Amino acid sequence: MSCRCSEFADLELEREQIKQRSKQSKTLLADLSFVVTHEDVEHALYRCDSCGCLWQRALAWNWGNIEYLFKIPAITSDDWLVLPFVDPDSVLIWVAMMERFLTQGTFEPSGNPCRRDGCERPGIKLSVNCLVHHIESVQRLGNLPATPDGRWLPCYSKVSPDSLDTYVAGLQP
Question: How far apart are CA 172 and CA 126, in angstroms?
Fold first, then answer.
C-alpha cells in the first residue's frame, strides 16, 4: 500500500493552512496507525505503516479546538511523551503577538551589559536586561504570551526562541 505522506508539506504559519490541514486530517488519519496519546490528551502520535513518517495530532484552540495533523521528525515514542512538538497554531499565535510587541517598541542598546547572571548580551534602554530577558520579564507579568512549550520543528527555526536575537536584529532599522 502506498501512502500520501509526501503530498503534505510542513504547515506554513498561516491560519488558512491550518484550517485546510484540519479538513484533510480525517482522510489522512485513516492511513495512519495510532501510537500513543500524551498525558495532556490534546496531542497524539501516529505513524504511517507504509513509509514510517510520524504525525502529531493537535487541537487548534483558537479555531474552536479543530483537530489537525502535522508531520514531525523521527523520534521515539518515549522521547515524544516527555516533550511533544510545538503545534503550528501555537507558533502562529505566539509569533504574531511577539511581532506586534517587537515592531511597536524601540529596543536600542543601553551600553550596559544585561544584569541576568551569566548573560553576555547587551542591555537595552529602559531596562536593566537584554531584550531576551526583558521579554521574559514582560511574559511573567502576563503582558505577552508565554513561549510555547515543546520541541520546535526545524521548519520554524527562524522564529523559535533560540533565534530571537537574530530575528529581532532583522526588525531593527
Answer: 17
